[in-house]
Amino acid sequence: MLRWLLVVVITLVVFNGLRPWLQKFGLGRLPGDLNFRLGGREWSLPIATTLLLSFLAMAVGELI
Fold first, then answer.
1. Per-residue model confidence as pLDDT tens digits over 25-53
2. 3-state secondary structure of 17
3. Do 22 and 28 meet the contact criterion of CB atoms below 8 Å apart?
4. 8, 22, 30, 58: least CB-packed within 10 angstroms?
């Protein structure tokens, strides 16, 4: 369980760093991705995108 949580947190951090580049491809705007403004700052919780990227990484890992 801890390993899965660590993978999700690392994916969220990487996604937030690459968010401007990935939004050109439509990632980060999928149904299930939450974007909201709180305390004068824009927050993003890309739940659907994280799941999609995790499944893609798993598929690539299975092929290798």
1. 887 788 988 888 988 988 888 888 888 88
2. helix
3. yes
4. 58
